[in-house]
Amino acid sequence: MSDTDHLPRKVRRFEPYLNSDERKEIHGLLDFAGPTPPKFSENLRNLARNYIDDAEGTKLRAICLLFADLFDQGWQVSLKKGALLCEPPSIERDDEQTVEDVKLRIRKALQASRRRQLKEPSVSAFIQQMERRTLRPQGRSSVLDLIDNGNDLANELERIASLPEHQRDAALAAVVNPVVEICHAGAKCADTGLRLNDIWRYFRHTWAHEYRPIPGRQLLVLVRNAARPNRPVIGIAMLASPVMRLNARDTWIGWLRGAMEANLNSGIWDAPTLARTMTERLDASISDVRWDDLVTPEELENPVENTVLRLEQKASGAAYARELELRAHYEVSMEQDGQVRPMRGAVKANDPATDWRAASEDLLFVRKRAELLAQLLSAKQTFRAAELLAKPGEALSQLLEAKSGQRAIDIVLAEFRKAGLSSRVADVSICGAVAPYNELLGGKLVALLLASKEVRDHYAERYGDQVSVIASQMAGRAVSKPADLRVLTTTSLFGIGSSQYNRLVLRAADHAGLDHDLRWDSIGKSKTGGFGTLHLGADTAHALRQMAQSVHTSRRINNRFGEGTSPRLRQIREGLEALGVESDAILHHNTPRLFYACELGSGSRGSLMGMDGEEFNAASASDIAAAWRRRWLAGRARRPETLAALRSLGPATVQRSLRTPDDELLKELTD
Question: pTM of the predicted model, to two decimals?
Answer without folding.
Answer: 0.82
